[in-house]
Automatic annotation (TrEMBL):
<keyword id="KW-0107">Calcium channel</keyword>
<keyword id="KW-0813">Transport</keyword>
<keyword id="KW-0406">Ion transport</keyword>
<keyword id="KW-0472">Membrane</keyword>
<dbReference type="InterPro" id="IPR036465">
    <property type="entry name" value="vWFA_dom_sf"/>
</dbReference>
<keyword id="KW-0812">Transmembrane</keyword>
<keyword id="KW-0325">Glycoprotein</keyword>
<keyword id="KW-0851">Voltage-gated channel</keyword>
<keyword id="KW-0479">Metal-binding</keyword>
<keyword id="KW-1133">Transmembrane helix</keyword>
<dbReference type="GO" id="GO:0046872">
    <property type="term" value="F:metal ion binding"/>
</dbReference>
<keyword id="KW-0109">Calcium transport</keyword>
<protein>
    <recommendedName>
        <fullName>VWFA domain-containing protein</fullName>
    </recommendedName>
</protein>
<comment type="similarity">
    <text>Belongs to the calcium channel subunit alpha-2/delta family.</text>
</comment>
<dbReference type="GO" id="GO:0005245">
    <property type="term" value="F:voltage-gated calcium channel activity"/>
</dbReference>
<dbReference type="InterPro" id="IPR051173">
    <property type="entry name" value="Ca_channel_alpha-2/delta"/>
</dbReference>
<keyword id="KW-0106">Calcium</keyword>
Amino acid sequence: MKGLKMTIAKHTINTILDTLGENDFVNVIAYTDYVRYVEPCFRGTLVQADLDNREARMNGQGSMCNQAIMLITDGAMEDFESVFEEFNWPERRVRVFTYLIGREMTFAQATKWIACNNKGYYTHISTLADVQENVMEYLHVLSRPMVINHDHDIIWTEAYMDTLFYTKAQSLLLMTSVAMPVFSKKKETLSHGILLGVVGTDVPLMEVMKLAPRYILGPHGYAFLLNNNGYILAHPDLRPLYKDGKKLKPKPNYNSVDLSEVEWEDTEEMLRTPMVKGETGSMTLNIRASVDKGVRKFCTTKASYSILLRVDCSRLKCVILITPAHPQ
């Protein structure tokens, strides 16, 4: 694959990666006469489709229900029936979506057969202008079981920067969005599983933090918020902006800061692991705190944690931290 076909293929890959989020896991494999991982250090594994890894793809625990292979090719010489019969049939747990690149239709039949016999979808992309519209077709196929089963899953997005009011146009705030799917309930199309779209609203994270019981925090306690991947949504030590001249700009990857980067536990991840698993309770553990007295030092102190708020449908966790007045 060379020239315009290669350009269309790369654009198709980037468009697919843009549809993935931090709850998805992905890898990119190139093949001709042999198989080659685009990123050698991710050989034989799937990596989280967060901003860092998506950019690594461009430059060189998922939904728990969907497994898919996206086959981007300029033509399949055969249908590889024996391979699918050995590894994917009869359960067909892995869907195969095929994208035929270019104007030639010589090998279209085999490419279409692969998709149709593995619960996938066949798409023909002949020009760059066709990429965006055709790539999105796989989302409708993956959503059909959810629509047919009437699963109104509620999701919360990763944190992002936005303005709250027009009067605060210069004031950037950390926001999240809560969303749920909208299905077609027409009798004639009910069995087709048609996803009409998504309905949602923006929620300032400072409004969520108001749910924390501040009356029990005391002068040395604080609350913080993180998602099911262990990424910080709100924390006193999270500084998502930097000053560029007279303007404040978001830092790169400000919304993918892990809890372990701001809460320095002395030994193993005793706090992060149970939180990501969705456990509740309280614990006392040693953490590292910084103290400025002319020289910046790291001191060890004991802190009590209580996981007070956990909304199952949203996978948001709120934690209360109570520390002593002076580190030991």
